[in-house]
Structures are given as structure tokens and as C-alpha cells.
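From: lab user (bench 3)
To: helpdesk
Subject: output format question, protein + magnesium ion

Hello, I'm new to running complex predictions and I'm not sure whether the block I got back is the full result or only part of it. Here's what I submitted:
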Amino acid sequence: MEYEAVIGLETHVQLKTRAKMWCGCANEYGADPNTNVCPVCLGLPGSLPVPNEEALKLTALAGMLLNCEIPARAKFDRKNYFYPDAAKDYQISQFALPSNIGGKVEFEFEGGIANVQLNRAHLEEDVGKSSHFAKVSGVDFNRAGVPLLEIVTEPDITSADMAYEYLNALKDILMHGGVSDCDMEKGQVRCDVNVSVRPVGSKELGGKIEIKNMNTFSGARKALEHEIERQIEVVRNGGTIPQSTRRWDDVAEITEEMRSKEDAHDYRYFPCPDLMPLEPGTDWLADVRARVTELPLTRKQRFIRDYKLPAGDAEVFKNDAPLGNYFEVIATKSKNPKAVANWVINNLRAKLTESGESLTDLKFQPDAILELIDLVESGKISSKIAQDAFGEMYSSGKAPGAIVTEKGWVQESDTGALEAWCDEVIAANPGPADDFRNGKGAAINFLKGQVMKLSRGKANPAMVGQLLEKKLTP
Ligand code: ADP
Ligand code: MG
Ligand code: ZN
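Helpdesk reply: Thanks, we reran it on our side. This is the complete output you should expect:
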């Protein structure tokens, strides 16, 4: 019997706010333990939460980017559990009426476009972080009360690789959309993976295993690969998979049982009496909608379609949105968007990487790239000289036309001057010249190179080729 995997992911993404969800404490990474805390996020008796409006807006923005339905009414619930990292003994989350319902994430996968349906994307608060030392354990509450968006998929994912691509796509959307910085190193994206196996063709879901708190995508992929294999092995041998929570051991590369799975009723969810329901109005939603930007995949597809870019170039602009915006400002004015892409990717991006500068530091105007392309296309300068002109324009901010004139870099297309260089080179290289005369066509490339060298790159290469050929053909 053949088995297939069924996977659903619950991903927690930290929202990009200055303050925490219910208090004014900084939403800041790396501070000394328990320095960003107050009575509210420590859950002291008598303290009351006040919602952070920016977190609510980012939640709605995420809903729009992920194609969710944003219901007219949402509310907060208490998820009750007793654990040292939850100072209040409950976590504020959304259970019955989440802020975003449904939705989808589309991404490139195995040569096509995969579509993972979402169940919901709700808002909840983070809890503290426990650390265990030799004799003591401690809890750092700096993270307690930090706003998180939890994005829950339907069990639509069919392989570890697909889960990995989904996670990357989700991260791209939320990061480019300004919802989260999605900084993995700072633990801003964490996911719980749920996985079961079933005989191929079966419509029923098998018992699922949940692996909690994966903080790298490659870790999630590896854990899934192992867990799928393990489950198939168990059912092949006639066993069953009891629903449970397992832990991924990164070093041993195995999953191990943590506890049998808790159900929703174990959390005794009930509406949080301290918080009003959310009823986003039309104007408020319109404000949020004004912040919606193009999805990365949509941009890539549009660049391929509208600017006839190869997929590789479009992928660069998908992953680097500011660079893509910069490209587009120039490309809309150019008859040759591919040439614009070449300059932006091969020259500009390389310089920026090398110097550690960003687009806002540029000394030249975007139109200078158009001028540079014109100089090459009209034959005024060779593409080799254009590289030098770009370097000069990058460091001084001068216009390429002015640079080329000033430096005497204008391409030599005057036949008299070109003939003189060709004659000199033929005289100095009788061997290769004879080779060409005797039918070795490739010898002309060497001679051409010599003329270019002699002219310090200024000779018009196409004309040099023609002249040499004429001179060497009896
Ligand atoms: P729980 O209440 O245990 O968290 P949910 O029904 O809320 O379970 O689902 C949590 C995640 O697990 C969702 O992403 C869902 O798609 C996925 N899931 C549910 N059932 C299965 C299953 N049998 N196999 C794999 N994934 C599943
Ligand atoms: Mg769960
Ligand atoms: Zn606080």
C-alpha cells in the first residue's frame, strides 16, 4: 500500500509594532531579561489591557494580503493554561471569532502555482520565555504580550518540500507587506507543524502529530521528512498513530513524544471580559487598505509579462522590492526594459552590495541609466566603456554623457582612425593575419582584441571587425 502525507501549519509571526499588544512596553529584542515589563504584561492583579491599534491594523493588513475575509465582528478569548511562561495563567487569543477568516497563499512549486487554503489568521499575545540552568530555571517576560499573528492552514500541504515553500512564500508576503520583519534569528517566525499519513486515494484524515515551535524553515522541512517516514513505517507494520505532540530533536534528528495532544476544551476558552469586541468600520478598513502593496508573486508574474524579463531577473525584483521599484521607474520610460534590468541587477546591485550603500544613498538620478543605455545603443560608447562610465557616475553622480565627453571616451567610429589602428595591428601580427587569410576565421578575434587594446577600448568593435575582414580578404 502507498501512503501520502497530509500537513497543516500553524505559523506565528511577530507583528512589527513599537509597543507590545496591551501596554506601552517596548516590543524590542535582545534587552536584558525582564526590563521591558510592567504590571499589564506581568499579569499583576488589577491591571487591564488596552489594545494597540497598530497591531489591529497590521492584523487587518495581513488579512487583506492573504485574501482573508475580515468579519464585521471579532473578539478576544482567554486560552487558559497553567505554565510558568504565562504570568496571567491564560493567554489572550482569538478562538470563536478571529479577525481574519479563510484566505490563501499562492506560490511557485514544482513548475506550477500551488495554492494553500488558510483556515484563519488571528491575533494573539506571545508569552514569556523559559530558560533552564543547572540549578534554577528562569522566565524572561520581555516577550510576554508581544503581538503575534497566527496563520493556520487547512490540511492542504502534501509534502515537506511544499511546506517549506509555503513558509517562504508566507514570509515574503508578510515581510514585503510591512506586517512583520520576519527576522528568523530573532525568533519572529515560529511554526507548529501538524502531520498525518493515509493510504493514497483515501479521503479520511489519519491521526495527526503536532511538532511544536520550529524556528527555522529548514528545520520544519527536516522534521516533516523524518516524521512522515516514521509514521508510514508505523502504519505499514500494522500500528496506529495516536494523536499527540512531539518534539523535534535537532541534533539527533528524531521526533520524540512530549505529551498526548490537548483538545480545545482543555483550554477552557471563554471571551476575555477585559476587552471589547472588534468592529472595524469602513473608514478604518479603507485606511488599512491604502497600505496594501502588490504581492511578491504577482509582481514577478507582472514583470515577466509586461517587461518581458526572464524569470531569473523577475525573481530578483520579487525578492528585493525597493530594487524592483527602482527598476520599474526606469523601465516604464525605456524601450528596452531588459537592458535596464541588466544595469540594475548586474551593475547597480553589485555596487550597492560592494559599498554597503542603499538606493537612497545614490548620487545619480534613475534617468542616468536611461542615458547610459542610449549612449551604448546609439554606438557612442562601447559596452565595455559603459561599465567604466557607470562606475564613474556611481561615485561622482555626474551624468554619463558628460563623463564620456570629459574623459574622451566617445567611441571612435571614424573610418580613417580605425583603418590606421587596423593596419598597425595587422603589421605587428603577421602570424594571426596569415592564419585568417588561410581560412582560420577565428583568428580575427585576436586581431580585433588587439585593435581594441590599442584604441584603449574606444574603437567601435563592429566596425573594426568589418574593416579587418575587408583588409584581410584578397
Ligand atoms: P488543533 O485544535 O489540534 O490545533 P486544528 O483543527 O485547529 O487542530 O488544526 C491545527 C492544524 O492542523 C491546522 O493547520 C490543520 O489544517 C491541521 N490538521 C488538522 N487535522 C489534520 C490531520 N489529520 N493531518 C494533518 N494536519 C491536520
Ligand atoms: Mg495547534
Ligand atoms: Zn508591559
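A quick orientation on your result: The two ends are 77 Å apart (CA to CA). Let us know if anything else is unclear.
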